[in-house]
Amino acid sequence: MNIKLLTHLIRLSDGHVMPDWIDCKDEAHAKEVRQAVDNFEYDTDNHAVRIRRSPKSRHAIDVKLTRFW
């Protein structure tokens, strides 16, 4: 079984949001990845990765942007 988690890759410099997928081997791995995303382990200095959140106005809820769009 192959599972893909749909996420948002959020550019911190301007809040631009891009859809992204994280491939998982199985359901247990998907739960581990989901927990890692929730714990901000996939974030970098330039991007934040979050489980997909809509509408766009809700992106800043758990992402600190350097400036808002």
Topology:
Blueprint lengths: L2 E9 L5 E8 L2 H12 L8 E5 L18
Antiparallel strand pairs: 1-2, 1-3
Using brief descriptors, characterize the structure shown.
69 residues; alpha+beta; three-stranded antiparallel beta sheet; 1 helix
Account of the protein in words:
By secondary structure, this protein is of the alpha+beta class. The chain has one domain (3-61). The chain has 1 helix and 3 strands. It has one helix at 27-38, and strands at 3-11, 17-24, 47-51. Strands 2-1-3 form a 3-stranded antiparallel sheet. A hairpin with a 5-residue loop joins β1 (3-11) and β2 (17-24). It is elongated and about 35 Å long.
Residue stretches low in confidence (pLDDT < 50, at least 5 long) are none
User: Tell me about the biggest sheet?
Assistant: 3 strands, antiparallel
Tally of structural domains:
1
Radius of gyration: 12 Å
The end-to-end distance, rounded to whole angstroms, is 39 Å
Helical proportion, percent range:
10-25%
Order of helices and strands: EEHE
Shape: elongated
Query: How large a portion of the residues is in β-strands, by DSSP E?
Result: 25-35%
Give the overall average pLDDT: 81
**Count of beta strands:** 3
- Discrete helix count: 1
For the biggest β-sheet, the strand order reads: 2-1-3
Category by helix and strand content: alpha+beta
